[in-house]
Amino acid sequence: MPRAGTTHQVSAFLAITDLSSSTVLTHVVTGERAAVEPELGRALRSLTGPAGFTEEELRDLTGSTDGVLLEFLTRRGFVVGAGADERAGIDSLFALAAPVSTPRDQSAGVMRGFGRQHYFQPRPLSTGLLDGRSGPLRKLTVLALGGCVTEFARDELVSQGLERGLDVRLVGAWPDSRGRLRTLVDKYRPDVTVLQLSIQPYLTELWDHGPLATEDERRERAERLRKVGRSWIDALAAATRDSGIGIVHNYGPGALSPYGRYGHRTGWGDRETVARLNADIDEALRPHDHLMLLDEERLVARYGARQLFDDLWFPFGHHGGTPDPERETPHQLPLLGASLAREYLDLHTAHTEQGRVKCVVVDLDNTLWPGVAAEDGFSWLDHDRTSTWIHLGLHQALALLKSRGFLLVTASKGTESQTMERWRNVRHPLLLTPDDFVLHAINWEPKSRNLARVADSLGLAHDAILFLDDNPVERHEVRRALPGVRIAEGPVHGFRERLLTDPLLDRPPAGHEAARRTESTRGMLKRRELGETLDERALAREVGARVSVRRAGPDDVARLEELLLRTTQYRTTQWRPAQHEIAELVRDGRVTVCHVTDRFADYGLVGGCVVVDGRVICLVLSCRVIGLGVGPRLLAASVRELGPARERVRGSFEPSDRNTPAADVFERAGFRPDPDGPSDGGTEGAEHYVLHDPADLIGPEFTEEAHGPVGVS
Question: What domains sit in the chain, N to C, each tagged with a CATH number?
């Protein structure tokens, strides 16, 4: 029996195994395991037994400073509540377990039957990764359909996940049956499902035997492999549509070519085969917004095939990680597992957009360029030096981010007039100009004060800003005053890589609105200055605002997804649909969009409204046109276009800590509070509105309404 006051006990099913440099914890029933530091293994051994232990006793033995370590151990079943009956439910657990079978796919003609095997190479988990975390770990379940390559990423996923505040659990399976894929997804409800097509049973017929076959035979085998890949991608897309994201590996080239130095004379050689198969995977993924690509080809280009894969020693089709040739047991060196784990987590971050950066603030002197521009000018551009190309490389990376819709701002010590005079008079095809930046803060004030003003002016949370500065003292000052701001550490030559690889700076291909976001944001700031002395109606007249509302068409789906996913300030509900749901609503004629211009800028497609069966599901509007009265006019025009002819139209406002600007949009458009609310009660805390008579809607001042199908006025 547990001692009085104890809260936990070590699981009766925990096996603790000491290795030379780490300790492995294994739950013998569920198969959960983790490689940890030996100190934690010794602590758990000393706490094992029916007497139980307290959280304080665990902290004393491990040196852990918070409860995240206990949470980590409990979630994996290594530690349970005091007095828990662990045997209860084990029979049902085994009943749910999938049978171990030999993977086959006879219809594909490329898989020859390969036994399932788990590989093990632990990376010790440091309890230091668990200290200093604010808030609980977020669960992330990864279902990996692949071979030993994905298995070897297991421990790296756990360790790198903890560094990001994630509790990652990997479930591994062979890609043996496309029909079973749906079963696995339904069972585990993964946040991420990985499909690795580059496994030996699929590759060996082409990779190993292809060089000995004729060109026609290689073409036929490549076509079979292409069809297998397509069918798997289609199955993955269907199975994961409502369960997280899917990640598909493409094919990475090896370090050696089976065709030697005359491969360019060989039809359907290794380079041509990889290029064609990868292009087909790209094409198969494009229609599915919830599928992402794990680009093995890009990993090889970045790290080198010798460092990642094993074809220097093993047959080409084995396609495992680089081994130690002196070691007999199955293993791989750590780079491949570490790089795959990083990519899996980065792809998940990029897709979910958690913590998305919206603005990059950059220092000028010795960061954006070498030296002090006001004193040294731009003569550095005349020299073929390493530092010249490093800084031009940074300019190019920032220009790419601007084209994706990120805002650029300068924050630098100096006299603005002197710096700008030098900067505006220089031209170079790779050099950013002052007009590429939406704001400039060049003065002698603390940079934290300038960054705070930038955040306020642009309506950004501090964690939506990334700050680049060569000076560690300046970085420290900003970090201390504004702890939420993201800061790029390290030397200037590392900034380009950060900008072009950080998943928080990744976005899907940008449309016209994203490409001109700097122009439209600058117009918003100029308009805001006028708005300090004019009311909304007078401001709209003064700036010549024009609002065009029409039904959405297929070309608007990507932009609508961006608005519905990212807009936080001006939205009526928290509904965030997937792209395929938006496409269906657009196809059914349930969505309107609006386009806004004024004398300062063309803001592009900045708003959308969804009306289904007499209910306004959601209205969203870009913050760049707040203050022009666009929201009520978009709502009124949408109801006139999409609402039922003789029935009441209803809508709800779901308040959050960010969407106050949209709080009065229904009443301003002509709706009235609805005391009855929706029949299902609606979202808790929501405010409900009803339009009794279409005649109550505000008129279309400043608004052009295109009624009927898109393009018809």
Answer: 8-93 (3.90.930), 140-352 (3.40.50.1110), 359-505 (3.40.50.1000), 533-705 (3.40.630.30)
The dihedral through the CA atoms of 207, 213, 218, 224 has a sign that is: negative
126, 162 contact by CB (below 8 A): no
DSSP string, 395-450: HHHHHHHHHTT-EEEEEEES-HHHHHHHHHT---TT---GGG-SEEEEESS-HHHH
Question: 326: which residues sit within 8 A by CB, 6+ positions away?
Answer: none
Residue whose C-alpha is closest to residue 516's, from 597, 627, 573, 581: 597
CB 634, CB 700: distance < 8 Å: no
Count of beta carbons in the 10 Å neighbourhood of residue 464: 19
Instruction: Map residue 332 onto helix, strand or coil.
Output: coil
CA dihedral (516, 521, 523, 524) positive or negative: positive
Short-list 73, 31, 75, 21, CA closest to 48 = 73
Measuring CA to CA, which residue among 442, 336, 333, 426 is closest to residue 379? 426
Q: Which amino acid is at 344?
A: Y
Q: How far is the CA of 112 from the CAs of 244, 275, 409, in angstroms?
A: 31, 25, 57
CA atoms within 13 A on the CB side of 511: 14
Most confidently modeled range among 306-310, 437-441, 598-602: 437-441
For 172-181, give one letter per residue: b (16+ CB within 10 A) or e.
bbbbbbbebb
Sign of CA dihedral 334, 140, 78, 99: negative
CB 320 within 8 A of CB 276: no
CB contact set of 376 (below 8 Å; sequence gap of 6+): none
Please provide residue 326's backbone torsions phi and psi, each rounded to the nearest 5 degrees: -85, -5
SS3 state at 466: strand
Angle (deg, nearest 10), helices 447-458 and 472-481: 50
Secondary structure (3-state) at 664? coil
State pTM to two decimals.
Answer: 0.79
User: Greatest CA separation found in the chain?
Assistant: 83
Short-list 527, 653, 535, CA closest to 598 = 527
Instruction: Kindly state the tokens that stand for 160.
Output: 């790198």
DSSP state letter for 126: P
- Average per-residue pLDDT for the chain: 87
The residue type at 40: L
Phi, psi of 238 (to 5 degrees): -70, -40
The DSSP line for 76-112 is TTSEEETT--TTTTHHHHHHHSPPP-----TTTT---
pLDDT per position as a tens digit, 65-76 = 767 888 889 988
* Confidence band of 295 (pLDDT split at 50, 70, 90): very high
Residues 190 and 171 sit within 8 Å (Cβ to Cβ): yes
Nearest CA among 713, 709, 407 for reference residue 588: 709
Q: 651 exposed, middle or buried (CB, 10 Å; 0-12, 13-18, 19+)?
A: buried
Burial of 285 by CB count in 10 Å (0-12 exposed, 13-18 middle, 19+ buried)? buried
Q: What is the pLDDT of residues 340-364, one digit of tens each?
A: 999 999 999 999 877 789 999 999 9
CA distance 219 to 216: 5
Closest CA to 565 of 410, 392, 358, 330: 358
Nearest to 254 by CA among 210, 313, 329: 313
Return the half-sphere exposure (C-beta side, CA atoms, 13 A cut-off) of residue 200: 17
Q: What is the DSSP string of 496-509?
A: HHHHHH-GGG--SP
